[in-house]
Amino acid sequence: MDWGLKNRLSQIIKPQDNRALMLAVDHGYFLGPTEKLENPKKVIAPLLKYCDSLMVTRGIQRTCVPATTNTPMVLRVSGGSSIIGEDLSQEEITVSIQDAIRLNASALAMSIFVGSKYEHQTIVNLGKLVSKAEKYGIPVLAVTAVGKELGKDARYLSLACRIAAEQGAHIVKTYYCENFEKVVQSCPVPIIVAGGKKIPERDALQLTYNSIKGGAVGVDMGRNIWQSEHPVEMIKAVRTIVHGNSTVDQAYAYYKKLVSEGPKNKPNQNKPNQNKPNTTKK
After folding, report:
1. 198 in Cβ contact with 12 (< 8 Å)
2. How far is CA 61 from CA 3, 64, 66, 74, 274, in A?
3. Which of 52, 198, 248, 259 could, after both became Cys, cross-link 227 (CB 3.0–4.6 A)?
4. What is the pLDDT of residues 79-93, one digit of tens each?
């Protein structure tokens, strides 16, 4: 690898522990204004300093992420279909390398849909993206998207992850599954586990723990953080597992402690004392 490629990868996967906590806010590129992500700027601001990298589209990066941030950007560069369209797998590369450089992207992210109608198109596009990105020392993260008709089992995910790595992806984002160790062992590049749909906080922490224990370098959490009732407390708890090697019980206890100490649970210091006599002149 060239120095620039190594440097960008080290911004996403921290070399001190070979771990990564990515925050995904790119859901709008096919879901539109997802619940609790209607105002991306409001969501991103309090969470930005607690993630190692932010997965985002160029439109949201330009309008909702402060240019003064030091958090690396993982730029979503594929798209073309919506949740109400005919087929979500019909994606193309939608962002040029030149625009990615202007946005100072630390990595480029795109989906491949192995086993779907447009499998060939997405896999070929991944190979082309890697070829273009490597000219400028930019790593590519391949997302192994799973359609409704495809199961999240070790055999399928091993196939999808290996294909992504064979095409030159530097990181693969996939789903956790039973026998996840087999998926990791068959993929020669680092794997990051997707958070998936919103689940209870303790379950999301369990997913994080299982992913790390199974060999993933980290997680890319989206809805399980910003759809939580306490997103900042949640990302802090996830971080204790990814970078602090906490157990699920320790992380969940920490989450509950943060919630109990949060501003919503503290007495309002500005609230008038109801027992104090009213001395206002009439």
Report:
1. no
2. 25, 6, 8, 10, 47
3. 198
4. 988 888 788 888 999
Ordered alpha helix ranges (H), the chain: 3-12, 28-31, 40-47, 58-64, 97-102, 119-134, 154-166, 180-185, 201-213, 223-226, 231-242, 248-260
Q: Which CATH architecture has domain 3-264?
A: Alpha-Beta Barrel (3.20)
Residues 6+ apart with CB under 8 A from 188: 165
Cα 173 from Cα 228, distance rounded (Å): 22
Q: Is the pLDDT of residue 267 over 70?
A: no
Counting every residue written for the chain, the total comes to 282
Q: What is the domain partition of the chain in residue ranges?
A: 3-264
Residue in 173, 236, 257, 271 annotated catalytic = 173
- pLDDT digits over 153-185, tens only? 899 999 999 999 999 999 999 999 999 999 999
Residue 264's nearest CA partner among 231, 225, 221 is: 231
Q: Each residue of 116-164: pLDDT tens digit?
A: 899 999 999 999 999 999 999 999 999 998 765 566 889 999 999 999 9
Q: Is 257 assigned a catalytic role?
A: no
* Residue partners of 189: CB distance under 8 A and separation at least 6: 164, 165, 169, 170, 171, 172
Instruction: Determine if the pTM surpasses 0.85.
Output: yes
Q: Do 25 and 43 contact (CB within 8 A), yes or no? A: yes
Name the nearest CA neighbour of 194 among 246, 248, 122, 143: 143
